[in-house]
Design a protein that fits this description.
Helix content: 40-55%
Strand order of the largest sheet: 3-2-1-4-5-6-7
Bound molecules: nicotinamide-adenine-dinucleotide
CATH topology: Rossmann fold
CATH class: Alpha Beta
CATH architecture: 3-Layer(aba) Sandwich
Number of strands: 7
Structural class: alpha/beta
Oligomer: single chain
Distance between the termini: 31 Å
Length: 269
Protein backbone atom coordinates (compact mmCIF):
# COMPACT_ATOMS: atom_id res chain seq x y z
CA UNK A 1 0.00 0.00 0.00
CA UNK A 2 1.26 3.48 -0.85
CA UNK A 3 2.35 5.66 2.07
CA UNK A 4 0.47 8.76 3.13
CA UNK A 5 3.27 11.18 2.11
CA UNK A 6 2.52 13.44 -0.86
CA UNK A 7 4.72 12.72 -3.87
CA UNK A 8 7.42 15.28 -4.67
CA UNK A 9 6.62 17.53 -7.59
CA UNK A 10 4.34 20.21 -8.90
CA UNK A 11 0.53 20.46 -8.86
CA UNK A 12 -1.05 21.80 -12.08
CA UNK A 13 -4.57 23.23 -12.34
CA UNK A 14 -6.08 24.46 -15.62
CA UNK A 15 -9.16 26.69 -15.74
CA UNK A 16 -7.88 28.06 -12.44
CA UNK A 17 -8.85 31.73 -12.80
CA UNK A 18 -12.34 31.17 -11.41
CA UNK A 19 -15.02 28.63 -10.58
CA UNK A 20 -14.12 24.99 -10.03
CA UNK A 21 -10.47 25.38 -11.09
CA UNK A 22 -9.87 28.27 -8.67
CA UNK A 23 -11.56 26.31 -5.85
CA UNK A 24 -9.33 23.31 -6.62
CA UNK A 25 -6.17 25.43 -6.47
CA UNK A 26 -7.32 26.80 -3.09
CA UNK A 27 -8.20 23.33 -1.77
CA UNK A 28 -4.82 21.94 -2.86
CA UNK A 29 -2.95 24.70 -1.04
CA UNK A 30 -5.10 24.11 2.06
CA UNK A 31 -4.33 20.39 1.76
CA UNK A 32 -0.60 21.11 1.96
CA UNK A 33 0.50 21.21 -1.69
CA UNK A 34 3.26 23.80 -1.76
CA UNK A 35 4.20 24.13 -5.44
CA UNK A 36 1.44 24.99 -7.91
CA UNK A 37 1.18 25.95 -11.57
CA UNK A 38 -2.18 27.53 -12.32
CA UNK A 39 -3.31 28.13 -15.91
CA UNK A 40 -6.16 29.92 -17.65
CA UNK A 41 -7.15 31.80 -20.79
CA UNK A 42 -8.11 34.83 -18.72
CA UNK A 43 -4.69 36.16 -17.69
CA UNK A 44 -5.94 39.11 -15.60
CA UNK A 45 -8.32 37.03 -13.52
CA UNK A 46 -5.66 34.34 -13.19
CA UNK A 47 -3.29 36.90 -11.64
CA UNK A 48 -5.99 37.89 -9.13
CA UNK A 49 -6.44 34.23 -8.17
CA UNK A 50 -2.66 33.78 -7.92
CA UNK A 51 -2.41 36.83 -5.64
CA UNK A 52 -4.97 35.34 -3.23
CA UNK A 53 -3.03 32.05 -3.13
CA UNK A 54 0.36 33.73 -2.58
CA UNK A 55 -0.68 34.55 0.99
CA UNK A 56 -0.74 30.82 1.78
CA UNK A 57 3.05 30.65 1.53
CA UNK A 58 2.90 28.11 -1.32
CA UNK A 59 4.89 28.78 -4.49
CA UNK A 60 2.37 29.79 -7.14
CA UNK A 61 3.29 30.11 -10.81
CA UNK A 62 0.71 31.21 -13.35
CA UNK A 63 0.48 30.61 -17.08
CA UNK A 64 -1.98 32.47 -19.31
CA UNK A 65 -3.03 30.79 -22.54
CA UNK A 66 -5.58 28.83 -24.50
CA UNK A 67 -5.48 25.11 -23.68
CA UNK A 68 -6.29 24.34 -27.31
CA UNK A 69 -3.36 26.35 -28.72
CA UNK A 70 -0.85 24.03 -30.45
CA UNK A 71 2.01 25.15 -28.19
CA UNK A 72 0.09 25.38 -24.91
CA UNK A 73 0.92 21.97 -23.44
CA UNK A 74 4.64 22.44 -24.25
CA UNK A 75 4.53 25.81 -22.49
CA UNK A 76 2.76 24.22 -19.52
CA UNK A 77 5.39 21.49 -19.19
CA UNK A 78 8.20 24.04 -19.61
CA UNK A 79 6.67 26.06 -16.76
CA UNK A 80 7.05 22.99 -14.50
CA UNK A 81 10.84 23.55 -14.70
CA UNK A 82 11.63 19.85 -14.98
CA UNK A 83 9.68 18.88 -11.86
CA UNK A 84 7.55 15.75 -11.96
CA UNK A 85 3.78 16.23 -11.99
CA UNK A 86 2.53 15.15 -8.58
CA UNK A 87 -1.07 16.34 -8.97
CA UNK A 88 -3.05 17.63 -11.93
CA UNK A 89 -6.55 18.95 -12.48
CA UNK A 90 -7.91 19.77 -15.93
CA UNK A 91 -10.82 22.12 -15.23
CA UNK A 92 -10.67 24.48 -18.24
CA UNK A 93 -13.94 24.22 -20.07
CA UNK A 94 -16.92 26.03 -21.58
CA UNK A 95 -20.72 25.73 -21.42
CA UNK A 96 -22.76 24.83 -24.52
CA UNK A 97 -24.18 28.35 -24.97
CA UNK A 98 -20.70 29.92 -25.05
CA UNK A 99 -19.39 28.31 -28.27
CA UNK A 100 -20.33 26.37 -31.39
CA UNK A 101 -20.07 22.60 -31.57
CA UNK A 102 -16.60 22.51 -33.13
CA UNK A 103 -15.12 24.73 -30.43
CA UNK A 104 -17.02 22.79 -27.76
CA UNK A 105 -15.41 19.53 -28.79
CA UNK A 106 -12.00 21.15 -29.10
CA UNK A 107 -12.04 22.74 -25.64
CA UNK A 108 -14.02 20.18 -23.65
CA UNK A 109 -12.79 16.96 -25.24
CA UNK A 110 -9.63 17.37 -27.27
CA UNK A 111 -7.81 19.52 -24.72
CA UNK A 112 -8.35 16.77 -22.12
CA UNK A 113 -6.54 14.41 -24.46
CA UNK A 114 -3.69 16.88 -25.02
CA UNK A 115 -3.44 17.52 -21.25
CA UNK A 116 -3.34 13.78 -20.49
CA UNK A 117 -0.68 13.10 -23.13
CA UNK A 118 1.44 16.02 -21.91
CA UNK A 119 1.49 14.99 -18.25
CA UNK A 120 1.57 11.18 -18.66
CA UNK A 121 5.35 10.80 -19.20
CA UNK A 122 6.04 13.29 -16.40
CA UNK A 123 3.84 11.87 -13.66
CA UNK A 124 5.51 11.37 -10.29
CA UNK A 125 5.38 7.94 -8.68
CA UNK A 126 2.29 8.26 -6.46
CA UNK A 127 0.97 11.21 -8.47
CA UNK A 128 -2.62 11.58 -9.67
CA UNK A 129 -4.64 13.43 -12.29
CA UNK A 130 -8.30 14.48 -12.31
CA UNK A 131 -10.14 15.32 -15.52
CA UNK A 132 -13.38 17.25 -15.03
CA UNK A 133 -16.29 15.65 -16.88
CA UNK A 134 -19.96 16.37 -16.03
CA UNK A 135 -22.99 14.51 -14.76
CA UNK A 136 -24.66 15.44 -18.08
CA UNK A 137 -22.44 12.70 -19.52
CA UNK A 138 -24.85 10.28 -17.80
CA UNK A 139 -27.85 11.74 -19.66
CA UNK A 140 -29.35 9.41 -22.30
CA UNK A 141 -27.87 9.90 -25.77
CA UNK A 142 -27.88 8.03 -29.11
CA UNK A 143 -26.08 4.74 -28.62
CA UNK A 144 -23.89 4.97 -31.74
CA UNK A 145 -22.70 8.48 -30.89
CA UNK A 146 -21.96 7.49 -27.31
CA UNK A 147 -19.88 4.57 -28.53
CA UNK A 148 -18.03 6.81 -31.00
CA UNK A 149 -17.06 9.18 -28.20
CA UNK A 150 -15.86 6.35 -26.01
CA UNK A 151 -13.25 5.34 -28.61
CA UNK A 152 -9.72 6.74 -28.28
CA UNK A 153 -9.38 10.16 -29.91
CA UNK A 154 -6.32 11.32 -31.83
CA UNK A 155 -5.06 14.90 -31.75
CA UNK A 156 -6.92 17.13 -34.22
CA UNK A 157 -9.63 14.54 -34.75
CA UNK A 158 -12.57 16.10 -32.93
CA UNK A 159 -13.48 18.25 -35.99
CA UNK A 160 -14.51 15.05 -37.78
CA UNK A 161 -17.32 14.55 -35.22
CA UNK A 162 -18.99 17.97 -35.61
CA UNK A 163 -21.53 17.07 -38.31
CA UNK A 164 -22.57 13.86 -36.55
CA UNK A 165 -23.07 15.61 -33.22
CA UNK A 166 -25.27 18.52 -34.23
CA UNK A 167 -25.87 21.18 -31.58
CA UNK A 168 -23.37 22.23 -28.94
CA UNK A 169 -25.44 20.94 -25.99
CA UNK A 170 -25.29 17.45 -27.43
CA UNK A 171 -21.62 18.14 -28.11
CA UNK A 172 -21.15 18.98 -24.42
CA UNK A 173 -22.71 15.68 -23.26
CA UNK A 174 -20.61 13.71 -25.70
CA UNK A 175 -17.37 15.57 -24.99
CA UNK A 176 -17.80 14.79 -21.30
CA UNK A 177 -18.51 11.12 -22.16
CA UNK A 178 -15.20 11.22 -24.02
CA UNK A 179 -13.42 12.66 -20.97
CA UNK A 180 -14.72 9.86 -18.76
CA UNK A 181 -13.62 7.27 -21.32
CA UNK A 182 -10.19 8.89 -21.49
CA UNK A 183 -9.54 8.51 -17.74
CA UNK A 184 -10.60 4.89 -17.97
CA UNK A 185 -8.47 4.06 -21.02
CA UNK A 186 -5.35 5.84 -19.69
CA UNK A 187 -5.29 4.38 -16.18
CA UNK A 188 -3.09 1.39 -17.07
CA UNK A 189 -0.46 3.61 -18.73
CA UNK A 190 -0.54 5.96 -15.72
CA UNK A 191 -0.27 2.89 -13.47
CA UNK A 192 3.00 1.93 -15.16
CA UNK A 193 4.44 5.11 -13.68
CA UNK A 194 2.87 4.44 -10.28
CA UNK A 195 0.36 7.19 -10.99
CA UNK A 196 -3.45 7.38 -11.15
CA UNK A 197 -6.00 9.12 -13.34
CA UNK A 198 -9.72 9.58 -12.69
CA UNK A 199 -12.55 11.74 -13.95
CA UNK A 200 -14.98 13.67 -11.78
CA UNK A 201 -18.53 14.42 -12.92
CA UNK A 202 -19.94 17.45 -11.13
CA UNK A 203 -23.61 18.23 -11.01
CA UNK A 204 -24.86 21.81 -10.81
CA UNK A 205 -22.13 23.82 -9.12
CA UNK A 206 -22.52 27.49 -8.29
CA UNK A 207 -20.20 29.11 -10.88
CA UNK A 208 -20.47 31.60 -13.73
CA UNK A 209 -20.87 28.65 -16.10
CA UNK A 210 -24.08 27.54 -14.38
CA UNK A 211 -25.56 30.99 -15.09
CA UNK A 212 -25.24 30.12 -18.80
CA UNK A 213 -27.62 27.19 -18.40
CA UNK A 214 -31.32 27.03 -19.10
CA UNK A 215 -33.14 27.96 -15.85
CA UNK A 216 -35.94 25.43 -16.46
CA UNK A 217 -33.44 22.58 -16.84
CA UNK A 218 -31.61 23.73 -13.70
CA UNK A 219 -34.83 23.81 -11.66
CA UNK A 220 -35.83 20.34 -12.87
CA UNK A 221 -32.42 18.93 -11.90
CA UNK A 222 -32.63 20.53 -8.45
CA UNK A 223 -36.21 19.36 -7.86
CA UNK A 224 -35.40 15.77 -8.77
CA UNK A 225 -32.08 15.62 -6.90
CA UNK A 226 -31.44 14.19 -3.45
CA UNK A 227 -30.09 17.45 -2.01
CA UNK A 228 -32.50 19.98 -3.65
CA UNK A 229 -29.76 22.57 -4.17
CA UNK A 230 -26.75 23.44 -6.31
CA UNK A 231 -23.33 22.51 -4.98
CA UNK A 232 -20.63 24.89 -3.80
CA UNK A 233 -17.24 24.85 -5.56
CA UNK A 234 -15.61 24.01 -2.20
CA UNK A 235 -17.68 20.80 -1.95
CA UNK A 236 -16.42 19.66 -5.33
CA UNK A 237 -12.85 20.76 -4.65
CA UNK A 238 -12.80 18.78 -1.39
CA UNK A 239 -13.62 15.58 -3.30
CA UNK A 240 -10.95 16.38 -5.89
CA UNK A 241 -8.33 17.13 -3.23
CA UNK A 242 -9.09 13.71 -1.71
CA UNK A 243 -8.70 11.99 -5.11
CA UNK A 244 -5.32 13.68 -5.59
CA UNK A 245 -4.13 12.73 -2.13
CA UNK A 246 -2.32 9.49 -1.18
CA UNK A 247 -5.48 8.56 0.75
CA UNK A 248 -7.05 7.68 -2.60
CA UNK A 249 -4.15 5.42 -3.61
CA UNK A 250 -6.41 2.58 -4.86
CA UNK A 251 -8.79 4.83 -6.84
CA UNK A 252 -8.02 5.01 -10.55
CA UNK A 253 -9.61 4.51 -13.98
CA UNK A 254 -13.09 5.49 -12.81
CA UNK A 255 -15.49 8.41 -12.60
CA UNK A 256 -16.71 10.00 -9.38
CA UNK A 257 -20.15 11.64 -9.53
CA UNK A 258 -20.29 14.67 -7.24
CA UNK A 259 -23.76 15.89 -8.03
CA UNK A 260 -25.92 15.93 -4.90
CA UNK A 261 -27.85 12.94 -6.23
CA UNK A 262 -29.06 14.66 -9.42
CA UNK A 263 -28.22 11.72 -11.70
CA UNK A 264 -29.71 9.19 -9.29
CA UNK A 265 -32.81 11.34 -8.74
CA UNK A 266 -33.39 11.66 -12.47
CA UNK A 267 -33.06 7.89 -12.85
CA UNK A 268 -29.99 7.96 -15.11
CA UNK A 269 -27.10 5.47 -14.84
N1 LIG B 1 -20.40 24.61 -13.01
C1 LIG B 1 -21.03 23.47 -13.20
O1 LIG B 1 -22.20 23.31 -12.80
C2 LIG B 1 -20.35 22.33 -13.92
C3 LIG B 1 -21.01 21.12 -13.96
C4 LIG B 1 -20.41 20.05 -14.60
C5 LIG B 1 -19.17 20.19 -15.17
N2 LIG B 1 -18.53 21.38 -15.11
C6 LIG B 1 -17.21 21.47 -15.74
O2 LIG B 1 -16.28 21.99 -14.82
C7 LIG B 1 -15.24 22.70 -15.51
C8 LIG B 1 -15.08 24.08 -14.89
O3 LIG B 1 -16.31 24.76 -15.00
P1 LIG B 1 -16.69 26.04 -14.12
O4 LIG B 1 -18.09 25.87 -13.71
O5 LIG B 1 -15.65 26.29 -13.10
O6 LIG B 1 -16.67 27.15 -15.27
P2 LIG B 1 -16.11 28.65 -15.26
O7 LIG B 1 -16.61 29.22 -16.52
O8 LIG B 1 -16.41 29.33 -13.99
O9 LIG B 1 -14.52 28.41 -15.33
C9 LIG B 1 -13.94 27.84 -16.45
C10 LIG B 1 -12.55 28.43 -16.60
O10 LIG B 1 -11.96 27.81 -17.77
C11 LIG B 1 -11.29 28.83 -18.51
N3 LIG B 1 -11.24 28.45 -19.91
C12 LIG B 1 -12.28 28.32 -20.78
N4 LIG B 1 -11.83 28.02 -22.00
C13 LIG B 1 -10.48 27.96 -21.91
C14 LIG B 1 -9.45 27.70 -22.84
N5 LIG B 1 -9.72 27.44 -24.13
N6 LIG B 1 -8.17 27.72 -22.41
C15 LIG B 1 -7.87 27.98 -21.11
N7 LIG B 1 -8.81 28.23 -20.18
C16 LIG B 1 -10.09 28.23 -20.58
C17 LIG B 1 -12.14 30.07 -18.30
O11 LIG B 1 -11.40 31.26 -18.58
C18 LIG B 1 -12.57 29.93 -16.85
O12 LIG B 1 -11.67 30.57 -15.97
C19 LIG B 1 -15.66 22.71 -16.98
O13 LIG B 1 -15.00 21.67 -17.65
C20 LIG B 1 -17.14 22.41 -16.92
O14 LIG B 1 -17.61 21.80 -18.11
C21 LIG B 1 -19.09 22.47 -14.50
Amino acid sequence: MAGQEKPQGIAIVTGAARGIGAACAKALVEDGWTDLLICDLNGDLLEETAQKLHNSGARIRSLAGDVTAPDFMDRMIEACEGKPVAAAVHAAGVAPKMVDTARMLEINWESALAFTQAIKPRMADGGAAVLIASNTSYFPIDEDLREAFEQPLAAGESAAYVDRVGDSFKGYLLAKRGVRALAKSECVAFGERGARIVSVSPGLIDTEMTKERDTEVIQKMINESATKRVGDTSELAAAIAFLLSPKASFVTGCDLLVDGGETAGMGYQ
